[in-house]
Every structure is written in structure tokens, then in C-alpha cells.
Amino acid sequence: MRERYGLNAPLWKRYLIWISGFVRGNFGESFEYKREVDELIWDRIAFTLIISVGSLIFTYIVAIPLGIYSATHQYKWSDHFLTFLSFVGMSIPAFLLALSLMVFAFEIFDVPLFGLFSAYYEGAPWTWGKLGDLFKHLWIPVIVVGINGTASLMRIMRGNLLDVLGQPFVQTARAKGLKEIVVVSKHAVRIAINPLISILGMSLPGILSGSAIVSIVLGLPTVGPILLNSLLNEDIYLAGTLIMMLSLLLVIGNLIADIALAWVDPRIRYE
Amino acid sequence: MKSTIEITEEVAGADDPWTDGGQLSYRQLIWRRFRKNRMGVIAGALLLLFYILAIGADFFAPYHYNEINMRLRHVPPQRLHFSFSDGFYVHGLKSVRNSESLELEFTKDLMQRHRVEFFFKDAKGRRHLFSSAGPMFLLGTDRMGRDLLSRIMYGARVSMTLGLVGVLLSIVLGSILGTISGYWGGWVDNLIQRIIEILSAFPDIPLWMALGAALPPGWSSIQIYFGITIILSIIRWGGLARQVRGKVLAYRESDFVMAARAAGAGHWHIITKHLLPGCYSHIIVIATLAIPGMILGETALSFLGLGIRPPMTSWGVLLEEAQRVTVLLHYPWLIFPALPVLVVVIAFNFLGDALRDAADPYSD
What we know:
Oligomer: heterodimer
Radius of gyration of chain A: 23 Å
Number of strands of chain A: 0
Largest sheet of chain B: 4 strands, antiparallel
Strand order of the largest sheet of chain B: 1-2-3-4
Structural class of chain B: alpha+beta
Number of strands of chain B: 4
């Protein structure tokens, strides 16, 4: 048994063997599932990606308008309300939100919010119906994972826009007699939105972490639950591969964010 | 020097920070500006109250956190009543076995009244602020019949101190490495910055999970506690080190540091007497804002069963029981420990925000 998994060698040697296999695409064998790690992880990584990208889109779509609204209505009651909301949103742990949403859904709508598919489509081959079913289940984890990021991004957008609105060129635009909506949307927001793109890279770890823990609570077939399981069972090759994959996703995400920033803002050049 | 400051404050006396801004020390200015922020002050007071409750949990909690009553499992929260003859009291409990689920269910026995006594002395001779001779579970009990309210108070000890200790660790680590990085620059700076970048590229919860799972099962509660603390601060020191480095870089070439160097001051003297004091306010603000993240980290880890292990208790450990929806639907009061988590985290966020505004010399 020990022989088969190569557990007799010292730790550093096992690590070296594993890591050299990893770069060649051989991730080792899971003790628990008695299968190659390779077979276990790919669709889970795909679902993780779907949820993460979904929450990222949700975060930006919701946070930017709210941030703009908050900044243009500074110190009105709606701004105070949004500020309070964002503080709560930043403070609530994602798993708690998932848990309470699940209870609510069960109490009020009497539907179990478990998994990514209805029982009918579970394990069925991919069809358009299954895809539709996926999207029907997807929005809850996407929102739950995205809430924390949305709240903090909204604060940042508000702060940025307020800074920009205080600058001379905005005053000039107003003095020219432009409508306020044109001043804000054409002049101020364009500048204020730039730092948000560089934050994209920084918000990725939070979203990946969030998706892991929310998936555990909601029982989604992403990396989270299988990672927890492998850690509890000391299934080292599986756990190691999963963490390595998550970190790789992050690095790639950061790279994309950097490229996007250079593409959007012509003042930034990487030399 | 110190006496003149005190005198001017007495003379000026007013709350307006600008009448005598020139004569007040930076710290006094911060304090004055902070006091004006009502949300910040409320949040600070609330946190102080929570810490007092946590430290004095032996006295404030009605029961010991591990007092098991196997016959009183999953008792729903009891309502506190008041009458002039009995003072505060709760009704007694009647247990009925549910014919379908075969579980014991509790209803209140209106004939019985258990009075709530203040400065109650329990069987072991310990004093409690309030308790009762009969069963009194204001927030209900868990699956082993332990009083949830008491467990939340005791859990605060672990949950609320873990964040503090963790942040303290990352402050020490972050300040030292940040100062080294900023002061000496060159390849040392490069190395430290790259390490920080690598650390910040990890998804924190999965990494914490892995490290939490790696803690040996044979460890005692205290060892686990410090193990978790170290795990949480391993990733978080990077941000602080960055900020300190930025500050040190800015001050390094400033006139007062040049003057100190010209006067023959050593590196140690310059760092501790001239550079670090300039970063203090910054460090405190970042530390305050980092505490909620640590509290949430511990809660998440314990919730998953990879953090604090029973018999030690924390808010995350308490929430672990509420993990499954079926349990939560039957015993919804098990979600109560989430409330203090939320309140404390929001309070820390408000406090940190208020401190940041107060420490910013360019505000208002």
C-alpha cells in the first residue's frame, strides 16, 4: 500500500517527485477516490471559474452605478443608507449569507437551494435544458460570493468619484454649461473608474476564497467541498493540486487584469 | 514640553480643534477629531463592552460553557417575564415527545416560575451576575443542553482575542520587514516585496484551510489557538509591511532624518526615534481594519471544523452546529452566534474608518 503511493520516501523527496509530475500534467493519485487527481478536478475547476467570473461581473455591474449614485448624492439620506448597507455587506461572512439565504428559500419558497442542478439534470449529458437549469441555480451563489466585493468596490468607486468631482476640470466642464449628467458620465466617471480595473486583480483572491466556502455550504460541485474533504482525509496529492490550481487561476487573473488596465488607460505602459 | 501642552489645553478648553491646533500634539489632534465622529465612538464603546463581557465571562454568563444537561437538549429560547411579586422570572419547561420524529420537544409550563436571581451563587460556589435555580436559557440550548448565551460569552474570549493577537503578530512582522525594506532598499527591498506579492497571490481561505488541517490532531486547545493565530497572520502581514515601507521611503530622505544622520545618529536610533513614530497612527488604523478579517477568518475556519476544536469554544465552533439546513430549520436559534460576529465586525470597521479619518491630516 505505502509502496504504491510512494509514501516511504522522506517528505522533501515526495514533494519533489510530485511537483516534477505536476508540471508535466501528472498530478498523482487520490487516496480517497482511488482515481487519478486529473480525472477529478477539471469540471470542478470549470464550475469554480463560472461562479467566480459570474460574481466578478455581478460585482462590477452593481457596484459602479451604486457608487456613482452615492457620490453624486453625497450626505443625502440615500447616500447614508447605501453607506450603511455597504458596511453590512463588507462585514457579513459569505458562508453566513449563504446559510441564511438557504433557510429563507426553504421557509418561504419551499425549494431546497442545494447544488447547481435540479435532480432531473444531475448527471445527465449536456443539453440546452441543462444549461438553462444551471443558470437558474447559478444566480444565488454568484450573488452570495459577490456581495462582499460589491460592498467594498462601491465604497472605492464613491471615494474615487468624489475626489475627481472636486478637481478643476470638472468645474470647467460645469462652467461651460454642460448638463450635470454629462459632466458626471463623460468627464468624471471615466477617470474615476480607472483604479477599479487595477483592483480587479486584487479582488480575485477574495472571490476565489468566497466561492470555495460558499460552495461548501451550498453543496456546489466546485473546488471548495472537494478541497475540504481532501484536507480532512489527508488526501495530500488532491489537496495540493487543488491549492496549486487555485493559485494558478489567481496568477492568470492578475495577468489579465494588468493587461486590461494597460489597454483601458493609455497612460500606463509596462516597460 | 509636556506641561506646556497641558496648560494650553486647559486654557483653550474648547472642543474646536482649530482654535489652538498649532499647540496640540498630533495625538491630541487625532483624539479630538475622533471624538467628533459619533459612529466611531459608539463602535469603540460597544467593542469595549464586548471585551469586558468576554474577559468577565465567568461572572457575566449565567452558566459555565461546558455545563451539559443531556435531558435539556435543544431547548428553544425562553422568554423573560417580569412581575412585581417575583421580579424577573422564566417559566418552567415541560417536555413532550413528538410522536412523529420521536424527539423531545419543550413547551413552557405556565404553572412553574423560576426566578432570576442576581449575584447568584451556583453549586460550585461561583458567583454569576444573574442565573436561576431552575433551567433558564434565554437563547436556548445546543445539542448537548448547554446554554447558548453562556457559550456565546465564553466564545467571545477566543474569537475576539484571536483577532487582536493575530493583528499584533502581523504588526510586529509587518513593521520590522516593512521598515527594513523601506530603509535599506536595494535587493533586500526587492526580495521582501516579491515575497509579499507571492503571499498576496494566494486565495486566503483555501490556504488557511490547508494550514489548519495540517495542525497535528494531538495538540492541546492552547496550542491550536496559537497555531490558528499564526496561520491567520502569515498572510496578512504583507499589506501592513507595504504601507510601512511606503511611509519609511517617504521619510527616509526628509530633512529631519538627514539632520539626524548628519548629527551622527545610528540606524537603530533613526528608525526607532524618527521613522517609526511617524508610522504609528497609520499602523493603528490598518491594524484596526485588519482585525475584522481575522475574526471572520477564524469563524470561517472553525465553522468548517478546521479551526478551534472543542472543548474550547468560539463563535465559529458554535456556528458549526448550525451548518446543516435541516438542523437550522428545526432549531433556528442555533444561528444566534452569528449576531455577535456581525456586530463586532461592523463595529471594528466603523472604528477603523473613524480612526482613519481622524489620523488623516488633510481631512476636513
